[in-house]
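[audit] Reproducing an earlier prediction to check determinism. Same input, same settings, fresh worker. If the tokens differ from the archived copy the diff job will pick it up downstream; this log only records the rerun itself.
[audit] input (141 residues):
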Amino acid sequence: MSENWHWFSWEMLWLAGPILILMFLALPETSGPNLLLRRAQRLRKLTGNMNLRSQSEIDQKNIRLREVVVEALLRPIQISILDPAVLFTNVYTMLVYGIYYSFFEAFPLVYPVMYHFNPGEAGLAFLPIVIATVMAVIAYW
């Protein structure tokens, strides 16, 4: 029983791989600081002037590890604790994700064992999730 469900995760990896490559190649970074960084790099290469720097390069040159830790780890925790709306949204999201992902853990245990599905049929049990996700994306757009 436990060997039959491992193919689900491998199948998802095979399906997600081409999408990752497509997104990596087709969706360039378009944030302002990144565009200015690439422009500064291009200008340095064309002009040979190594003094040309983007604002993000100047800012990152003087950054300390402590500042990175505070910004990346402590600030989100601080916001979650001090703002009740953010805290309740985080708790609700944790609950929803916990329930949602417990379904993925239960599918391989329920369908092959109780309903005697083969691996192909058990994989079809995930199809309603894909359909619902597509419908939600269409509704969101």
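[audit] rerun output stored. Observation attached for the diff report: The chain is about 80% helix and 0% strand.
[audit] end
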